[in-house]
## 1
Amino acid sequence: MQISIMMMRAMQLDGPGKPLRPVERPMPEPKPGELLIEVAACGVCRTDLHVADGEIPAHYPIIPGHEIVGRVVEIGSDVEGFALGDRVGVPWLGHSCGVCPYCRSGRENLCDEPEFTGCTRDGGYTTHAVADARYCFPIPTSFSDIAAAPLLCAGLIGWRALRLAGDAQRIGLYGFGAAAHIIAQVAHWQKREVYAFTKPGDVAGQAFARSLGCAWAGASDEMPPLPLDAAILFAPVGALVPAALKAVAKGGRVVCAGIHMSDIPAFPYADLWGERTICSVANLTREDGNSFFEIAERAKIETTTQPFGLEDANAALAAVRNGEVKGAAVIVPGL
């Protein structure tokens, strides 16, 4: 008797610097504590480029993608709170140990033995994915599958970065891509002034920023018309750190939101003096996710997206790398 094996389609990265290639794999089975999800959409994040380029250590071969939206089709043992057909989102932090000092103190984003979706465990450039149920979030019904996908990283990391900026009233966003276009809307809804910094000459990007409520938009080598209370750096360019320090007022904070950044060049102590601070964002906590989706719904966030078919994942990555996407690129297996 021949047993039929269910298969899934995916785009696989075999190693750093290699293009993704289409593969078929046996359908994975959820282990205890896991969900099997039929992927409806998966956002394309700049972090995926760092994985593809080998700038972030990954377990190759790997299926990239960590902004997953899909529906539960199978539930592993020891899972509570989910039912078949539930729509869920899966973020970058896909698993934490639960026992290290960071996990025990509510700082699971700093876990000593984490697993990352699309990096150390297979992600969402596929038709089906397995995820730790503890790191799956319900998606508000007000967002479509494609619109919700960028919220799972661009939105979540932007939200954590905004929270680390404190109660700053005047905020600068360096790099106006997927994350900035979401968090600019949140900050505007919170009655803050948002100043957008793009690549020099990116007139279209600056116009896009202003259309989302930014008070000012200019090039990253320009100074804002007024000193900033805080700056968030989404562009992975270390040279922007000294530039942002010069743009913030005394007591201001510069938040580096990327998981990878080029080296920060030397700068005079005088640019840091005046109780200015620099901090980084590392991953996210489940509390970040729960609070962000509540805010995103209340603020009526609208994501701007460009969909790509699963087999077009290489083109999607290239478009993100070249800054050709307005808002966020999203892989849609059903296209």
## 2
Amino acid sequence: MKRSQFLKSVGAALALPAALPFATSAQNRKGAGFSSSRSNCVLIPSETAGPFPLDLTENEFFFRQEIHEDREGVRLRQRVRIVGADNCEPMPNVRVNIWHCDRDGDYSGYAQMGSEGLTYCRGYQMTDANGECEFVTIFPGWYPGRVTHVHFQVHVSSQYSVVSQWTWPHEDAVNAVSAHLDLYPAGPDPLSPAQDGVFANGYELQLADLAWDEEAQEYVSHFEATVEGAGTSGVGYQELQNARVFELGQNFPNPVATFTQIPLTLHEAADVSYSLFSPLGACVAHVVVDPLPAGRHELVVDFEAMNLPPASYLYRFQIQTARGRFTDVKRMTVAK
């Protein structure tokens, strides 16, 4: 299985079910993280994608967890959780794109910045059963007229996405840079969120927390966004086409100890194969299943037999019938 085939399917099949206990608003301060209480369940304000979005969908390189590449700056572990407004439940298996400037306020991919063809500080992940995903990057710098911020896009289905931005409380952002002036020659951000015109309509729902992890020598940040949806599924053209042929369920149990079962319902006989991918984008296993008849099937995945370590994995199914080829992708977690 080619990695590009998998990633194109991620761009099309972007949302489906599962749920575990989840966390509260990302406005918990000082790195408290996601707790077990309910979300505030208020829709995130939509914002401009900005002048430097780039379309990550067709570029297979951007499916990755570490996005900073060779950019210098203090390490940032950014955790994101997505919640559906219709029922205030976490949204698993949705794709989250993020992009931000480097420490000097420059974005990759643009000739006017001398970065055409570069890809730093951009990437996407898919959320787990708690609606969460994680990126490893650097704390961004700032540029005139804008407070320190990160752009993000949540793909709820193949036909619906939300674009917005997050920032940090001004004091936290200033302290993060002030403590590492050797890495940030421009110094602390002179603007506060209240002075940034993009956040003129309010930014309370667009604040991430930030705390220093001394042991890991990195900042850890949590951000939660509530978007339109039920927290269980997203339906667009691609999802409707898939539903005519098959239904891919969430694996159980999830998280996984050593083995799990993946429910697959076929509405007609099909050739079936699946691949497992790590969040770093590597294909770690490819399995060709014997041709299956119409009906419900439960496919067993034995991680111990595959000698795969505890981690989050995406499973991508490819279904071949007389109608054509269909794909779907979900995420599972193998516990430590």
## 3
Amino acid sequence: MAQGRTQVSQDEDQRQSQRETRIADVAKARGVAGGAPAEAVFRLDDVHVHYGKFLALRGVNLEIGRNEITAFIGPSGCGKSTLIRCLNRMNDLIPGARVEVSRRIGMVFQKPNPFPKSIYENVAFGPKVIGMQPKSMDDLVERSLRHAALWDEVKDKLKQNALSLSGGQQQRLCIARAVAVAPDVILMDEPCSALDPVSTGRIEDLMEQLKQEYTIVIVTHNMQQAARISDRTAFFTAEAAEGTGDRTGLLVEYDRTDSIFTQPADKRTEDYVTGRFG
């Protein structure tokens, strides 16, 4: 029996080593120049987020670089989505929540949420609400759908209800709706978690194209996805707050994606990206 257990352990170690190698190879291929971003779109200095007396996230310091994809990774409950909501000031709507950040932002959520309107009206809705006056709304809608790699699929059915689209198409429509208002930053909270692998691949390819014009921040539980698409990665975790039994989120490490996945500076990061966390 001891020999059998030893063999199982060796097999598991081998699989773990192969997994780490695959992630490292992808991350190295995504490597970007070292140091801080050349131009910061967001600069967070010692950000704390409270819900009433509960400290949800503490002491976050990081810079989000222009025309880069930044990934937030970490276990559930560590504050990733809380922070991305702060960047969009969505927490301002929650009684007792306190935070101070503001920018022109486009938001894409975990599940596609098109309005129960036509495809055309979904894209035109935001520009109309904020009072944009483009020379041609038709041109703006087409340009936004092209940015979302959706134009060729829907150009002949713009009056069709958006809810008739597939899940992947709906998510790309939501991206088109976000870029229609010309944001500085696009925030994506697990945008592929409800999609099949083919649709996920299309969204990832789209993000690579969009970063030429936009800055993107993505929350993802998929470490392979973070390694594939992001330039920089922030790893968060949750630990017991001093003097209380509550667990509070904190930023452990923020660096180039290749460094996070191949040479993390913190043991907690290494444990997470290699599957030994917890």
## 4
Amino acid sequence: MTMAADARVQRLVTLLQSALHPPPGGKRIFFALFIGVICHLLFAAAVGAMMIEMFFGLSRSYGSVPWPWAGLLDFALIIQFPLTHSFLLTGTGSRYLSRFIPGPHGATLATTTYAIIASLQLLALFLLWTPTHIIWWQAEGAVFWGICALYAISWCLLIKASFDAGAEVQSGALGWMSLMAKIRPVFPDMPTEGLFRIIRQPIYVAFAMTLWTVPVWTPDQLSLAVCYTLYCFFAPRLKERRFESRYGERFRHYREAVPYACPRLFASRRNSDA
């Protein structure tokens, strides 16, 4: 499949072309651009904060709450993201997202609103975290560069999985670009291409990998890694219930053919033997 024929690329190109040639409506266009700029600035800041803070094992964050209250606040910062993230994906949460921005454009901007909220949550987690200032282990020399390479690979896999799932949704662009073009947001189909050919949950697996491939280990990083790895393992099961309800037999067939989180490394040998 060529890049031009890739449905993932075609969706992005079509959406971008529609947004670049919007129908008349100055206020609508300005509002869409304003929300889009806010969304992507926050998204970039959140990803940057996450990459940097985890790289240093959460040892250089900016929280200054005295202990032991800092432990309670840090725990609250950890759980606020998965709880809100999961709630907003439910039917009730989706209706809340549609009404979050007052006016006639709330439903169109739902995916952008979701990305803005998630970005603010991540910024709160990684910038307001109060470090213990305890460093258990810090990689050096060749080990440091090897772990850095694994960390970079983990992030590349996360970016690739997000692209395979639908970059316009994952980045929040679908909402504001659809408003710009004055069209109904069209969500990507059930993802089965790219990394989704290998496992059903590549985004969650790649994110879990970023948690464990850091060169500095602290009690802070271990707490984050354990909690969010558990989230990455269990949360997708709720997502798969929604997919089964939405896609029915098609998703059940996909679920039987593709493993949940661990690739079937020897599947081709078994098939050839059969």
